[in-house]
Specification:
Helix content is about 65%, strand content about 10%. By secondary structure, the chain is α+β, with helices and mostly antiparallel strands. It is globular, with a radius of gyration of 24 Å.
């Protein structure tokens, strides 16, 4: 069998989910004397196969070797960036994708990949430009789905709903039968309160794929907004039947089950805790922190509203350990623990350090500690320190973990806009996580 035929066979195996078989085939195809035009696609497919099997250590070794040999090949640099991305090495992934763009400025995929990494690094303006550039350079139709979907989602998240709707409509003009884009457009229309049009989009998507969990889920949310709770519950149950492992569907269906007049308590709690268990089972490299935060908040609110306070606090503790805790969760806890703030309070910026001789289970195995930062509403610096330590000890209640407050300073209105423009007094305490955990090692 020719190498080209072997690569085609390996690609088929990868597409069918048989990554281990593909890796074995590609390994047996390796020969150091292969010409570059055969060696480069072999490298790229082999790296993909290792990633699909979860063997990221060997994928990193192979991708770095390929980049050393073919540092001017955009496909190799994209593969290297993808491995870094999967390993959570976002700065390295960013640099690899930038190198690929330098080599091939007209490649849509590297612009899209760079945008996705920049978005996760918090640079949304640059991410938006990358998505738009990916669409500009993609001369084939229909245009790159991932870039359209990512740009639309970014615009929705930043409140630019009409712009997002335009993105979806232009894509659907080229590919009107794309189920995923129909769903994305429906979500946008629902956010714009154009409920009938949104329902039409979801129904159209379901006419092509009756098992599309996302279409059922968002149809349920839209029906709920329309004041149709019975229809919404039935649709959410369909979403769960279509995708029984979706954490968000589990969380919302559990919350709605718990809120019924005569709830099936065992079923409701099973769904809610199933959502948390599914989050914990997802590889961190494939889990969006904002998605995880949404799921945790849904579960927290469901438990708190039914006065299952201890259980809600446990969800908040788990969320805090992973930087998934939300402003709403913190406000709820602060109001219960500290009450509404008096008029004379300041928003402080706090940086803190945690260290432990042995890492707790949720830390990386070789971590010795981490640094992090908070916004804190308090009467003075001493109170800000006290609330910060109180929060850290609540999420890390382990005797081996020691905490140190490294800096406390008043925050400017530009740094804490929500705290200075809130319509009513906020509760004192930690009100937001400024920077995610930066773990350090020996």
């Amino acid at each position: 069998m020719s190498l080209r035929a072997q690569l085609d066979a390996a690609a088929t195996l990868l597409d069918e989910g048989a990554a281990s078989s593909a890796v074995r085939m590609l390994r047996s195809s390796w020969e150091p004397e292969l010409p570059d035009e055969e060696l480069i696609p072999l490298y790229c497919m082999w790296i993909r196969g290792l990633c699909d099997t979860g063997d990221l250590d060997h994928a990193l070794v192979l991708s770095e070797r390929a980049a050393d040999e073919f540092g001017e090949e955009p496909d190799v640099l994209i593969a290297l960036g993808n491995v870094y991305d999967l390993r959570g090495q976002l700065e390295d992934a960013r640099d690899a994708f930038k190198r690929s763009i330098d080599v091939e400025p007209g490649g849509a995929l590297q612009h899209y990949n760079l945008g996705a990494v920049l978005e996760r690094l918090g640079d949304e303006p640059e991410a938006e430009q990358c998505y738009r550039r990916a669409l500009e350079v993609d001369g084939e139709g229909p245009t790159l789905f991932e870039a359209n979907a990512a740009l639309g989602a970014l615009l929705r998240r930043t409140g630019r709903l009409e712009e997002a709707a335009d993105i979806y409509e232009m894509y659907l003009d080229e590919d009107p039968l794309n189920v995923d884009m129909l769903v994305e457009h429906g979500i946008c229309l629902s956010d714009l309160d154009e409920f009938d049009e949104a329902v039409d989009r979801f129904r159209t998507a379901l006419s092509f794929d009756d098992d599309h969990g996302g279409a059922w889920y968002n149809l349920a949310i839209t029906q709920y907004r329309m004041g149709l709770p019975d229809e919404a519950f039935a649709s959410m149950q369909k979403a769960h039947d279509s995708d029984r492992n979706s954490p968000l569907t589990l969380a919302v269906l559990g919350a709605w089950t718990l809120a019924q007049a005569e709830p099936d308590l065992d079923k409701a709690l099973g769904l809610l805790y199933g959502a948390i268990d599914r989050l914990a089972a997802i590889d961190g490299a494939h889990l969006s922190p904002s998605y995880a935060s949404l799921v945790c908040e849904e579960v927290f609110d469901a438990l708190w509203s039914r006065m299952r306070i201890a259980e809600a606090r446990e969800v908040a503790r788990m969320a805090g350990q992973r930087d998934w805790i939300t402003v709403h969760m913190l406000d709820t806890l602060n109001e219960a623990d500290h009450g509404r703030a008096p008029d004379e309070v300041t928003a402080f910026m706090v940086t803190a350090r945690a260290e432990a001789p042995t890492a707790p289970e949720h830390w990386p195995v070789d971590a010795q500690g981490y640094t992090t930062g908070f916004t804190v509403l308090a009467a003075d610096e001493d109170e800000a320190r006290r609330y910060s330590l109180e929060y850290l000890r609540s999420i890390e209640p382990f005797p081996q973990v020691q905490f140190q407050i490294e800096a406390v300073r008043p925050g400017s209105p530009e740094e804490t806009p929500g705290l200075h423009t809130a319509p009513h007094p906020r509760a004192r305490g930690v009100t937001g996580v400024l920077s995610g955990r930066a773990y350090f090692r020996s």
